[in-house]
Write a structure and sequence with these properties.
alpha/beta, 8-stranded mixed sheet
Amino acid sequence: MTASPSTVAGHPALIEGPARARRTLVLAHGAGAAMDTPFMDAIAAGVAAAGIRVVRFEFPYMAARRQGRRPPPDRLPVLQRTWQEVVAALGKPERLVIGGKSMGGRIASMVADDLGVAGLVCLGYPFHPAGRTDSLRVAHLEVLRTPALIVQGERDPMGSRVEVDSYVLAPSIRMLWLADGDHSLKPRKASGETEAGHLATAADAVAAFIRALP
């Protein structure tokens, strides 16, 4: 299944999966890589193959990088406003599940309740900056109302299983841990797991989560 280039609310986008699907998964990229990385391609293709429409989009700074410039990630208000614009353009938020890779999922988690979307999916949530466990990004996750799935590698330097198990998260949040995975869910060879296997597991879990939403 091939993703079709498009725009949503003026932002570059890739769309795949059935146009009349009951639910649409909207994904944003992480801080350092665009919407068409192998990681994003694998997740989007796996979810779309399960009969769910998938829309990926890029924040303004990433779109600018495609034009040869190298701006840093946009400030928080711009990132949140971009999410608001995209959801408004797609219509019927109750049919949308929003989320993304790392930063993309984090920003989605900050606006999900206000937007009234059906669900939230975070792929490698940055619970804290790498090496800074004293700077947590969990306050809003303690009171999140939106049904959520966080897919996390067990040894993620931005939130390992040992660390996250000590946090108090809202009952709306379900964690899926992938053995020996890092921030991109990639395991070490010695673990016996594979990156492809973990990405497939993540895509299957995301699709099952979306299908189970009321």
